[in-house]
Amino acid sequence: MKTSCDIIIRPIITEASMQGLADKKYTFEVAKTANKVEIKKAVEEIFKVKVLDVNTIKVNSKPKRLGVHMGSTSEWKKAIVTLTADSKTIEFFDGMM
User: Fold this and answer.
1) Which one-letter DSSP state was computed for residue 87?
2) What's domain 4-85's architecture?
3) Contacts of 52 by beta carbon, 8 Å cutoff, 6+ apart
4) Which of 82, 89, 84 has the alpha carbon at shortest distance from 27?
5) 1: helix, coil or strand?
6) Please, what sign has the CA dihedral across residues 78, 40, 44, 82?
7) Helices of type H across the chain
8) 77 with 31: CB under 8 angstroms?
9) Residue 31, exposed/middle/buried by CB under 10 A (0-12, 13-18, 19+)?
């Protein structure tokens, strides 16, 4: 059985994701096998907020080169979580705006 901490891997801190904070949209890297219902329950449990919607995106690998060696970045899954209007904000992101 997966715990909430196994589902939510890390927050995504980029310029694009920071623009969504005004609309209560938060971006996280999540487990590849997690579905939207599991992500919603995990965010609600960890951060004690109410989730309105979850959008997931599969980020494909890209080819990379280091000298003569060829490789690729790893595939991962991204979730954009929208909170309800009456929900409090996630405190972790408050100091970054």
Assistant:
1) S
2) 2-Layer Sandwich (3.30)
3) 82, 83, 84, 87
4) 82
5) coil
6) positive
7) 4-7, 15-19, 36-47, 91-94
8) yes
9) middle
- Three-state SS at 95: coil
Cα separation, 87 vs 85, in Å, equals 6
- SS3 (DSSP) at 4: helix
Residue written as token pair 């929900």? 87
Digit-coded pLDDT (tens) for 58-84? 999 999 999 999 999 999 999 999 999
Rounded distance between C-alpha atoms, residue 37 and residue 79, angstroms: 12
Rg (CA), the chain: 15
Q: What is the pTM of this model?
A: 0.89
φ, ψ for residue 49 (rounded to 5)?
Answer: -125, 170
